[in-house]
Amino acid sequence: MNGNNNYRNTNYQNPNYQNYQNNNYQDSGYQDAGYQDGGYQDAGYQDGGYQDDDFAKAGTNVSANANIVISARNIHKTFGKGETAQVVLDGANLDIAEGSFVSLMGESGSGKSTLLYLIGGLDRNFTGDIYVSGQNISNLSDSKLSEIRCKSMGFVFQFYNLAANLTVEDNILLPLEMSGRRVSDYREKYKEILEITGLENKVKSYPSQLSGGQQQRVAIARAVLGEPEIILADEPTGNLDAASGAEIMELFLRLNKERGVTILQVTHSAECASYSNRIVTLKNRVIVG
Ligand SMILES: Nc1ncnc2c1ncn2[C@@H]1O[C@H](COP(=O)(O)OP(=O)(O)OP(=O)(O)O)[C@@H](O)[C@H]1O
Ligand SMILES: [Mg+2]
């Protein structure tokens, strides 16, 4: 398999994007449309919140040479209004380097899932800026956002989210079909993914006939078949015993190392976090390191 190249995106080659860590945005020459449309200025860029020192802040501590595939800047998120309003994120920053495997930890209710869903474009009601593969997704049209989500991101959830009335094969192929891509173009990839996930003998089974670990492997196969650059996983082992959880982590490690997939996983488990090469924590509504 010639994995890594498939995951590359021309945006990564943009030298302006590589400068991202070194200076502030004024020097970086960020030219994408989202950056120019003014949305950026609302997010505190002009008020000094974004100058050099801030790049040393927790959540942005990645190598200066790394290409950044995910960048969440100055994220504010509130649920509810008036007296019941709850501020969940209050100026959170997070940069994720290409090819890294990052665990996001923090107490229950600290906002981990909230941040993950914002990064994945699943919740658009927030302020701040989120860049995915160099593109500011914060103010894209729904259709453009869907396209980026389909192309760049694969989601894995705690409760697998499989369609009960579809076989393993149909579950894995569903996102391709829904995004209008030709399944026949992905035959080879499909076989590879079955081999990696160890599901060759289960393709005609239904989710209810599988163990939790096997169901999660189906969800991962589904997430990676479209060759996303990024996997976003919310407690992918939260519903599994230790042995099945370790299997899933081994699978993530393999996808990360062999295929260059960037992984951001939310986890409560120190054991699972030990598979990743960076741990960040959400506390007091920001990333603290
Ligand atoms: N749709 C929603 N409406 C209102 N409040 C919400 C909503 N989703 C989350 N919250 C609140 O936001 C806070 C953060 O929730 P979130 O699910 O992000 O936490 P978490 O860190 O993922 O927790 P856990 O580890 O338990 O999954 C919680 O107080 C939660 O009640
Ligand atoms: Mg959660």
Describe the overall structure.
The chain has 289 residues and is of the alpha/beta class. The protein has one domain (3-281): Rossmann fold, CATH 3.40.50.300. The chain is 35% helix and 20% strand. The protein has helices at residues 3-6, 15-18, 25-28, 33-36, 39-45, 112-119, 142-152, 168-178, 187-197, 212-225, 242-259, 270-273; strands spanning 68-79, 86-97, 101-105, 127-132, 135-136, 153-156, 230-234, 262-266, 278-283, 286-287. Strands 6-7-8-3-9-10 form a six-stranded mixed sheet. It has a four-stranded antiparallel sheet with strand order 2-1-4-5. The longest helix has 18 residues, at 242-259. It starts with a helix and ends with a strand. The structure holds adenosine-5'-triphosphate (ATP) and magnesium ion. Magnesium ion is lined by residues 112-113, 234.
> What's the number of domains?
1
Q: Could you describe the largest sheet, including whether it forms a barrel?
A: 6 strands, mixed
End-to-end separation: 35 Å
Bound molecules: adenosine-5'-triphosphate, magnesium ion
Form type: globular
The CATH topology label is Rossmann fold
Q: Specify the CATH class.
A: Alpha Beta
Number of helices: 12
Q: For this structure, what is the CATH homologous superfamily? A: P-loop containing nucleotide triphosphate hydrolases
Give the amount of beta strand, in percent: 15-25%
The portion of residues assigned to helices is 25-40%
Category from helices, strands and their pairing: alpha/beta
Known CATH architecture: 3-Layer(aba) Sandwich
Q: What is the H-and-E element order?
A: HHHHHEEEHEEHEHHHEHEHEE
Radius of gyration from the alpha-carbon trace, in angstroms: 19 Å
Q: In what order do the strands lie side by side in the largest sheet?
A: 6-7-8-3-9-10
